[in-house]
Amino acid sequence: MIKLDKLQFAYPGREALFCNFSLHIARGENILLMGENGCGKSTLLKLIMGILIPQAGSIDINGKAISRLQAEMFTDVYYHSQSTAENLLGISPEQDWDIWRICMPDLPPLQENTLFTELSTGQQKQHSQRILPYLMDKFWLLDEPLASLDSDAQADLCKLLERKMLSNPGMLLIAHELKHEMLPFTRVLTLKAGVLSYA
Amino acid sequence: MPKLHPLSHILICLVLSSLVFACGKLYILCLILGISLLYSTLRKAYGIRKSLLTLWKSLPFVLSVAVLQLIFRREGDILWSYSILGITEGALYWAGLISLRFLTVILCAKALSRSSFPEFQAAFAFLRLPEEFAFMLSYGVQLIPAFGTMLKGFMRSLRLRGIEPTKLPWSKRLQVYRTLAVSALAGIVTNSQSSAIALELRGFRSSGKRSYLYKKSVGLADACIFAGLILLIYFSLA
Q: Could you give the CA distance from residue B109 to residue A143 in angstroms, rounded to a whole number?
């Protein structure tokens, strides 16, 4: 499904984050990725999506080489950023949903004219995740989806993740709050100094 | 590039972008554009490729203004004519003049927008101007780049949702662009409000004796730059 081969990446003027980094994710695998702050977890997801470009190495999704972010990638993969602002478009939940309905016309309409600025960070995050149940057929790349959610919202999301694990494409999840015993992950990986190890 | 006082950077941009409007000689304007390009390249190690890319991106706008000048200006000898259209010597001169002016201003504005708020603050503190002035100016010059960066981020978010804006039908495209433009503007206003609150929380505008974390004095390199700018003004206007 996702293949990263001999990846090399460093932010300009900084030490290399990944050196000869490889990761193969099979279809249906559910992976929990853990690691300290700044170890490169979010960078890894951005590299997979073509948001960041590696200095060397190759990335492919379903056999298609990824050199930059393209709209067609949405057919196979959905990436949910750590930053809520990046997951929302427009100034209100209704506007954001209307943009979702451009690519998914079958979505039910939503009428919520509250401005995003009037919602709390947690509420904004919850809204940004409203789309997830409609994207069960895609491989999920979720970056810290549980952060800033209250315990009820976290429990709801965990239920959804559990349901998602039964569907085929799988997911790669970054979560500090999640104990790996809570959900039946296929693999639990820890990233440290650009090297992956089994937790 | 030697470490210059932030005020020197503002002065360089102001002098270069003002000189192009005060001077009417094409070879001087070419020289000023060259200096602006060099300055833009060296400012925060931006690089020649990115500076040239800035010029390339502004080319459609600059060329369209130049073409209007070529078509509608009627000054001097006719160099070429076809039916009612004609290109005169004066039109060619003005097209060149305006293009060079625009390109220089764009490069200087871009270079200035790379200055951060603390740099503006240090520059205006040196002139003993109020900090509100530094805040407003730094926010003002970064308004258009911030708008551009926000829109770029929105385009990325659209692609993550499987939407390629350029492939949308016109009606949908307009709907999306309208939503995103309003959202970007709202974002900038909200950010300015957050920045203002953050500054207030850090004691900005508080009365009494102040200490500045970021203070820089003028050095030899700045003196050389001032001398160079005075020479350039003299040479351009002589």
A: 36
Å between A2 CA and nearest CA of chain B: 17
Q: Which of A81, A85, A99 sits opposite B176 (nearest CB)?
A: A99
Q: How far apart are alpha carbons A58 and B26 in whole angstroms?
A: 49
Tell me the two tokens of residue B217: 């004095």
Q: Strand, coil or helix: what is A170? A: coil
Contacts by residues B197-201 (CB-CB < 8 Å, ≥ 24 positions apart): B199/B135
**Would you list the DSSP string of A71-95?**
GGGGGTEEEE-SSHHHH--SSSHHH
Distance CA B237, CA B199 (A): 42
CB A121 within 8 A of CB A134: no
E-strand ranges in B89-146 read none
Q: Per residue in B56-77, pLDDT tens?
A: 999 999 999 998 888 888 887 8
Token digits of residue B197:
């609150």
Residue A77 C-beta-side C-alpha neighbours within 13 Å: 30
Amino acid at A136: M
Does the pTM surpass 0.90? The reply is no
Note the pLDDT tens digit of each residue in B93-138.
Answer: 999 999 999 999 999 998 988 888 778 878 887 887 777 777 787 7
Residue type, B52: L
Amino acid at B65: V
- CB B87: neighbour CB atoms within 10 A? 17
Label residue A197 exposed, middle or buried (CB < 10 Å: 0-12, 13-18, 19+). Answer: exposed
Inter-chain CB proximity B160 and A69 less than 8 Å: yes
Is residue A34 within a helix (H) or strand (E), and if so which, with residue range? strand A30-35
**What single letter denotes the amino acid at residue A98?**
D
CA distance B72 to chain A (A): 42
Cα gap B156→B160, rounded to integer Å: 6
Strands A77-80 vs A139-143: parallel, antiparallel or unpaired: parallel
Q: Is the ipTM of this complex over 0.85?
A: yes
> Which tokens in the block code for residue B181?
């433009």
Chain centroid offset of residue A118 CA? 26
**d(C-alpha B156, C-alpha B46), whole Å:** 23
Residue of B nearest to A81 (CA): B157
